[in-house]
């Protein structure tokens, strides 16, 4: 008797982001063998720091990776996407700057208070989006269109239309390097957020309940799961991710610009979730895949810049990538690949794949 081996669901879900990264790595190594080299050099303050395209990819994708984590939960629970994350990050960043400038100086205490304040504001707006989706049953993309439209205006009002600076060694350390630590701080923040999510998923039922609600809300309700509460929680968690990303964005420049802070990042966050092998219709998810998707997008961006592609044309190249991903992830293409794979590995029609055959 011969029995076919089944592929791991996790490995299958990570296949797309890993393949995207592999293609980019091979392409860049052929184009420039030293593209991913990393060197230890001194910064303006004389501290040793890591530099290179690889570090630029990991560092530049930090805000996107964090937003992709929260977007993954929202997509899994609601079967839709939040297109207001960039605007909400601008609101959170503006509130962060407002609190920092309210005191006599920027101290560790004011930074903590500013972060807590921007988290509270972002969670409140996240709850607003979540209420529209979970209670009023508005499609997520339509519900979040409200904040997408007016969010940056709210960020503008918070600081009276100004773009104040927050020049401080503490803020610089958050946005660049902690003195004596060669790894950029945003990369460390992404690792911390990943660890927090991993611990939450391990010791709570958040992951299971979120997927259950996304797969079948009616069945989840019959099993005692509060579907409304889970959707609302997903949007609130995404609000926290927006706050963290907003703080990083502000700290990189040491100022708040409500018009440009994380502009258009919501589309990249949705794309990262899609590249990560997650269904945009909700249900099962893999957050690691979304994070890898974020790094794949940033790797593509850095590659295009290295090839001297004008910044105005980069969105067009990303659009091509989106088309390819949508096509590859379509049921028709998946079934065709499955049939081809079955013939190559088993030498039998796809309809008999996975069944026992006599020796």
**CATH architecture assignment name:** Orthogonal Bundle
Write the element-wise H/E pattern from the N-terminal end onward.
HEEHHHHHHHHHHHHHHH
Shape: globular
Kindly estimate the percentage of residues that lie in beta strands according to DSSP: under 5%
End-to-end separation: 5 Å
Main sheet specs: 2 strands, antiparallel
Q: How many individual domains?
A: 1
Report the top-level CATH class.
Mainly Alpha
Overall mean confidence score, pLDDT = 89
Give the strand order of the largest sheet, numbering strands 1, 2, ... along the chain: 1-2
Structural category: mainly alpha
CATH domain fold name? ABC transporter involved in vitamin B12 uptake, BtuC
What is the number of strand segments? Answer: 2
- Which value, in Å, is the CA radius of gyration? 22 Å
Number of helices: 16
* Low-confidence region ranges: 349-359
What's the helical proportion of residues?
55-70%
Summarize it:
The protein has helices spanning 9-31, 53-60, 62-78, 85-102, 108-134, 140-143, 145-158, 169-175, 185-203, 206-215, 217-222, 227-253, 265-275, 287-306, 311-328, 331-346, and strands at residues 39-42, 48-51. It is mainly alpha-helical. The protein has one domain: ABC transporter involved in vitamin B12 uptake, BtuC (Orthogonal Bundle).
